[in-house]
# Entry
Amino acid sequence: MSQNVEWFTPEVQERYKTCWRRGITGGLNFYRASPLYPATDTEPGAAAVKLPRELVTVKMPTLVIWGMRDEALLPRQIEGLEEYVADLRVERIEAGSHWVVHEFPERINALIRGFI
# Structure
């Protein structure tokens, strides 16, 4: 969880709970079905997935905003993106965690507005 959780007010918590009450099975099933999982000592995980380059090449201008303190989506996961995205802009939010959108909403909105 973020070091700065001031944004995670009781009102925001209730909005999350309201969404979760509708069901989260579908979202979780996406991850359960994905072949993209971390490698283990006995299974190669995502390294075993081989896709044709043309299927994974992004041809549209792309903005990636990354919280560099994210403990779920580690910063090393953006390394090498430029090999697959010709027109790539990466904005690293050094103090941002997995909840970077909540932590820095004005900055995120400005980055998106400037990009589009």
